[in-house]
Amino acid sequence: MPAKKKPVTEPAPVKDETKEAAKKAPRKRAVKAAVPETPAPEVSAPAAAVFGEEALPQPRRSVAFIGSECYPFVKTGGLGDVMYALPRALSRQNCDVKVILPRYRCIPQQYQDKMVYRGDFMMDLCSDGRSFFVGIMEYVWDGVVYDFIDNEEFFSWGNPYTDLVEDIPKYCFFSKAALAALNYMDWHPDIVHCHDWQAGLVPVYLRTEFAGTPVANAKSIITIHNLRFQGLFYNERLRYWSGLPDYLFNYDVLLQDHGDANMFKGGLAYADMITTVSNTYASEIQTPFYGEGLDAHLRYHAPKLRGIVNGIDCSIWNSLTDPLLVAPYDAADVTAKKKKNKKALQATLGLNIDEDKFVIGLISRLTDQKGLDLVNAILPELIDGNTQVVVLGTGDPFYEDSFRYYENTYKGSVCANIMYDEGRAHQIYAGADALLVPSLFEPCGLTQLIAMRYGTVPIVRETGGLKDTVEPYNMYTGEGNGFTFDRYEQHLLLDAINRAKTIYFTERDHWDELVVRDMKKDVSWDNAAKQYRALYLELKP
Ligand code: ADP
Ligand code: GLC
To answer: Given 3.40.50.2300, 3.30.830.10, 3.40.50.2000, 3.40.30.10, which CATH number is that of 334-523?
Structure first.
């Protein structure tokens, strides 16, 4: 049953030149969601105008990205980075991309101010046919169109995610509203590309309630960024809020053990293609250890499962143009400039200022996924007078407190920044010598890619995307990008860090070569965007 009852919201505020259009726009007519409404004026992504039609690969493909976060509007982790950077990389591959997001209240005002009203309508949602307001606010930026689904009842919270009691209704609404909005805008993409469980019901709605409507001509792809989160809850709640027919609540689609229903499971079953963000994770999730209860389901759907390794946006992550660094640098002067950035970081954080210390960074959500119990266990052994540890992250209070404890115990050598701060992240990537990513599992991981781009050597566990992107350093051939360990054991992590320290302190010329090699490694989105484009063409030749 509905968790909270607030009045249906008023339409979102309308800005300047669009005010007149908004006044004339249709308001709150109760119509079936799947039926296309009078279209609002079309705004197409100016990708060709930006990049030049001839330079782009042919043919053009149109794609609707549907997901719950996107930098710089809202980001809690790597999903936000991907939703920002991949559409841009795709528009350079001649894809016309619309990104569909919830219009959360926490989106900074500067972006709210740039959104223009695109239209609104009423949409049936629940099994008893309750009707909800769907507003569409649009922002066109650098060749990508962002359409924000507006409804204050669902999206007025401070954070995008609260708990599943609230989040199940929120993302049922969002998944259905995204498709209804595409029909409403009369924009019928070749591909509907869904991301994570929050968009899990999109492929299901597409082939059921929206079958026979224009948007159903699209093929659907669902990308797994993190299988740990699935939208798994009592089936009664999903039945009520999704309004989906009973026949879908079977063990091949939405039902799971113990009377639960699973939004991600349904999306994986109904999508035309499943991707995940590295090849190793694509294999791992078919095993019980990494499969989070869906390994059998994924083995069944394996013929349509692919791994495509993420990239990073190299214009944001560019150590030469990064305005947040005291000493910008490239591969030619990294050795000297990194020392300056290191000293500035030490001064900012109250660490002992010494360019010869080995500074290890850790930038992460503080959760069990990230291998922090291993870090906790060995931290005292790291602090030997030559080593400093800088943590940046928020999350589980246990880890927040334990890193604060270490900061107090090892003053001048450990700094715990228990906060989310993009600027500080840039300074740590630039000022640290090594970055720790000892994850229990890691679908792709972006921090090791950013670190390499900033000449900061990754120390990682060989799992998921970490395995696919960090080649172990070979002290005999001098090849590789970082230091790695395989089994999830604290002493293996300590050993990997000690191997890195040995090269740093005793073979500095080899260390410097490693740093330069990392900076030159291609970690951009270009390769992944080409693979996604090929997939789109495979589904829509
Ligand atoms: P995940 O998505 O599992 O959190 P990723 O490595 O894919 O991990 O992405 C993490 C992203 O979030 C990176 O861009 C990283 O720099 C950023 N990040 C994580 N924690 C913080 C923090 N406390 N402050 C600033 N940025 C952070
Ligand atoms: C998830 C994963 C992370 C991945 C990111 C972007 O949050 O935990 O490994 O890099 O999504 O795909």
So the answer is: 3.40.50.2000
